[in-house]
Each structure stands twice: as C-alpha cells, then as structure tokens.
Design a protein that fits this description.
4 copies of one chain form a homotetramer. With about 130 residues, chain A is mainly β. Chain A is about 0% helix and about 50% strand. Chain A is built from no helices and 8 strands. The first copy, chain A, is globular and about 40 Å long.
Amino acid sequence: MRTNWVGSTRWAIAEGYIPSWSHGPEPQMTSHETVCLLNTTDRDAHVEITIFFSDRDPVGPYEVTVPSRRTRHVRFNDLEDPEPIPRDTDYASVIESDVPIVAQHTRLDSRQAENALISTIAFADR
Amino acid sequence: MRTNWVGSTRWAIAEGYIPSWSHGPEPQMTSHETVCLLNTTDRDAHVEITIFFSDRDPVGPYEVTVPSRRTRHVRFNDLEDPEPIPRDTDYASVIESDVPIVAQHTRLDSRQAENALISTIAFADR
Amino acid sequence: MRTNWVGSTRWAIAEGYIPSWSHGPEPQMTSHETVCLLNTTDRDAHVEITIFFSDRDPVGPYEVTVPSRRTRHVRFNDLEDPEPIPRDTDYASVIESDVPIVAQHTRLDSRQAENALISTIAFADR
Amino acid sequence: MRTNWVGSTRWAIAEGYIPSWSHGPEPQMTSHETVCLLNTTDRDAHVEITIFFSDRDPVGPYEVTVPSRRTRHVRFNDLEDPEPIPRDTDYASVIESDVPIVAQHTRLDSRQAENALISTIAFADR
C-alpha cells in the first residue's frame, strides 16, 4: 500500500437481527450476522462494540482486538461478554476503535457455503 | 460508548416498493420494507418521514419517535397516518430528525424467519 | 419536510450487467437493472446518464427528467436513445443532474413480484 | 458527461470470502467475488490491490489497469500475481489508484446468469 491507513474510528450499523434456532430446519436456516473489520494501520486496533435495543439500555462494550494489518470477521452470534445477544430481537450496533478501521455489515447464509445474503458498508462517522 | 452520538439529521432512501398481497402465495411472498433507525443520543429523536411518488405530491410527515439510546425498526407497511403507503407503487423517502440518527434500509423476507433480501445504508445528508 | 432538498448533482454506479434473455427460462429469470432517482427540490431535475464499457467509448447522454418533488425508478433495460444497452456486457454509469438528487442502484427479480436482489446507494460525488 | 472525473484514489472492502469448490454441487454453487472499477478520467488508472488476512501479512500489490473512460469488473478469483487468493479464507482489500476511480463490491451467483447476490459501494477514503 502506498499509504498506511484507511477508515474511521467510529461506525454504526442500524440493522441487526439474529433469528432463533427454532425457525425452520436447523442448521439450514442458520444465518450469521457478521461485521467485517479491517485494520490497515501499524498498530493493533482495540475495538469496542455497543449493542442498542428497542426496549432497554444498551449493552457493552464488547471488546475485540484487530491486530495491525489484519482483517477480522466478527460474528455477533459469538459475542458473549458481557452477555450473549438475544435472538429474535431487533438491535443496532456502534463500533469504535482507537485507530482508524473499516467496517462492513454482512449476513451469511450457511446453507450455501458462506454465501452472503446481504452486505453493506457501515455508516462511517467522520 | 466513548462518545454520545453518531449520525446525521437527514437521510434519504431513493428505492421503495411494497408488493401487493395478490402476488404469489401469501404469506410466503410477503416482504417487509423497513427502515432501521438508531438514536445514540441522550435525547428522544422526533423523526419525520416524507414519502415521495412518481406521479403525485409527497405525503407526510409520518411521525415516529425513537427514544434516547434506542433502536427502532420501522416497517413502511405499518405506516398509516396520514395514510397507508400504496402497494405496487414506486416510492422514495426522506427521514428527518431533530437529533442525529443513523438510518439503514432493509427489505425482509418473511419466508425465512426475518432473513433480509437487501440492506443498504441510507444516504446521509451532511 | 423541514428543508427542501437533499442529495448530490453527480453519482456513479460501477456495477452494471443486464443478462441476455437466453439465460434460463424466460421470463422467470428476467432481472431488471434499475436506478432509483429522488428529486426533493422545487425544480425539475434534468438528468444525464452516461454509460461506460470495458472495451469501447462511453455512450450518452441518456436524458431523463425527474419532476420537482417526485421519484423516478429508471430501468436501464428500457433506455433506448441514443442506443439500447447491450446484454451480457459489463457496464458502469455516471448520473448527473442540474439540481441535487439521490440515486440508488437496485436489481429487481421479476419472479417474486418485484423483490430486489441487490440494492446499494450509489456513490455521491460531493 | 459535464465533468471529466468522479471518485476517489483509495477504497476499502472489509468483506471478502471465496468458497472452495468442494462446497455444494459445482458449478452451481460457484460464486464470484468481484470489484467493479470505473475510471471516468482522461488518463489510464494504474490500480494496486492489497489483500489483508486474519492471520498473516498482507499480500500485494495486485496490479490492474483500467483504461481511460472504461470500466473493468475484476474477479478476485482470477487474481494470480503475486499469488492466488486462498479459498475458504476471510480476507479484505484496499484498492489504490493514481487517478480517481469508483469501486463497488459485488458477489455474483453463476447459477442465474450473473445475477448478483450482494453489492455494496466500497468505502471511499477522501
């Protein structure tokens, strides 16, 4: 790369929803909410994810480290500390980092070997 | 969160279309046009949605409140005041708020437990 | 609306592809490349679309008018002047307007009553 | 076109994944990761793509030329120099150009005559 970083230190994803396992034949219907993070800088990115709900206070931060010059695809389904994200529940997320990163929201469909159903760049607060 | 707000006070979604119920076996083919709103601020967001059409004057505002530090997933199908949004009709929308919010456009497919067909961040007017 | 316009006077869509009718059972496999335009201003928008190819000079402008305070969903399949857009061919587009508009790129799948396969906000040149 | 360029000289795509051929019946399940590039300028664009991984150093640059006033849809599957992109592996990409271009990320599904599964504008670093 000609330069050593790209991105923003704060991102938001207004759409989030993890179906419960009781919907449809499992695991065919399992989908994975993912936020793909890219850290092009020379320093590790200490990322904090805050989850917002429709009917209660936000939960977080969920702490994730993206090493220098690495990408990390974080599944919301796997976040457990401070608490798992409830299923069948609307949520939204804010992603903050101490160095600039790029964030992209993707929902995977496990039926087709990781094909994505949707993907959109997150909103970068500049 | 390290800071207390993210977003813009004005957003636009140029694409909108709610199929009529007569298309395909119902409810399998029912899709839901949704705008996901996120308010990270300390104040309630008073949101006004204006709907634009191809052949008549805009309709609105549709008023929605997103409480402080909450997300709200608004289905265009459910908007009724001042009037329901017609089916089988191209429309577009502008979303304005008195505090900064984040808006994301998603179309849900009810056949697969709320899987999304499309999702894109709305256009933020800065 | 509290204000009377939103958007940009220049947009770009780098992805474009109209399948030929010979692929798959027709019309079930027919898809429609669409650019959804929104004009929130008090003046009509005179829009010029230029189409770029991989192996020949750009073609255009294709002229489209979006009346004041209206939306218009333009199908690339239907553009005919100065010439139809070839099928099975990679293309890209630039959309310019004399007043600010919002542009969103959507591919429709006619099998499911206008369900969209993809949708993404176009790139706004500011 | 009224003006002669649009875009940015640096773009990022945080999401990338090429399924291996062993998943599902081939070629029906083959998907193609694509980045669509548009160069509206009067000069050829010399583009460098750098690929980032989760567990090793970035690889690149992959060099691509987009001629003046042309579009080029680049398949990550086809990149071979300095090395092919591994399958079943999370990656991300940064796209840099010596003239402004527009970049859009699309995943194609070959089962339906080049229908796209996802598409999103890349992140433009301004």
